[in-house]
Amino acid sequence: MKIRLGIPKGSLQEATLQLFAQAGLPIHTNSRSYFASTGDAEIECMLIRAQEMARYVEHGALDAGLTGLDWVIESGLEVVTVSDLIYAKQSRGKVRWVLAVPESSAFEKPEDLSGRIIATELVNVTKNYFSARRVDVRVEFSWGATEVKPPMLADAIVEVTETGSSLRANHLRVMDTVLESNTQIIANKTAWADCEKRRKIENLALMLRGAMEAKDRVGLMLNVRKDDLQRVLAVLPALKRPTISTLSDPEWLAVNTVIEESLAWDVIPRLKEANAQGIVEYPLNKVVV
User: Fold this and answer.
1) Which of 239, 240, 254, 253 is nearest to 284 (CA)?
2) Contact by Cβ (8 Å): 278, 239
3) CA spacing 20 to 30 A to 76: which of 91, 243, 246, 251?
4) Is 111 in a helix, a strand, or coil?
């Protein structure tokens, strides 16, 4: 049994490869090939544009793949959503498809664009957005460099943004959010109905989510006297509840927990003030919750 897995080629590629490596399954790519290898003999990888991923998953050429919710909706195809993975090219967050116009334009709301040209890669979603508002516009497919098209080649654009820096650099202002999107693991319906393939895909999703949960978090271990335990617990921002175990000395306890890495700078000195000893901060690869 093998799983044919699609890896998004393009803007999401590097972030996805890093996530797989952190999850314990490095993907080895070749700049001259669209095929990639892993250390798992049951997983075959192929690099596919995120825009096309749903098509090949729905048709069965791939058993599963990683792509954006935006491209699944745009395709209109029926695939199984296995898991959300909230990460993008530059951050652990969602992206937005926004309706944007030149800063100097007189357009203030979507209705002002009636009869105008909208350039975008997300054609179907954009058409549905304006149709729902009963605004008649002409939506044109953009092959890229969409931000430079207003005002000469289009009156407005619908473009994806993560930080907004590209829009600002091209003197565009956001009028409205058309769609929020995030990365997803999707699966072919037939593959999902196969018990062995489904288990493999679910395990893959579990490990990737675990790697994401571990990102920007650290583990903390410390020892504390029983009399000081409540003071220590009052300081710790635990993932759920810290693990507490007894030591060979019955008057002492070991405490183990997970915190955001950014909090360690403040938390560790406060733990020391609460009489914690032997404080150890350590990196995490995966947190499975």
Assistant:
1) 239
2) no
3) 91
4) helix
Pairing of strands 138-141, 117-120: parallel
Q: Are 228 and 276 in contact (CB under 8 A)?
A: yes
Centre a 10 Å sphere on the Cβ of residue 163 and count the other Cβ atoms it contains: 13
Identity of the amino acid at 40? D
Contact 67, 29 (CB under 8 A): no
Integer Cα distance of 96 and 207 in angstroms: 26
Both tokens of residue 97? 């498809």
Q: What angle do CA 132, 134, 137 make, to 5 degrees?
A: 105
Kindly report, residue by residue over 163-215, the tens digit of the pLDDT. Answer: 888 899 999 999 999 999 999 999 999 999 999 999 999 999 999 999 988 88
DSSP conformation letters of 220-273: EEEEEEGGGHHHHHHH---SSS-EEEE-SSTTEEEEEEEEEGGGHHHHHHHHHH
Judged on CB neighbours under 10 Å (0-12, 13-18, 19+), 230 is exposed
Indicate the helix (H) or strand (E) that contains 254. Answer: strand 252-260
Specify the residue for token string 């149709």.
Answer: 131
| pTM for this prediction | 0.84
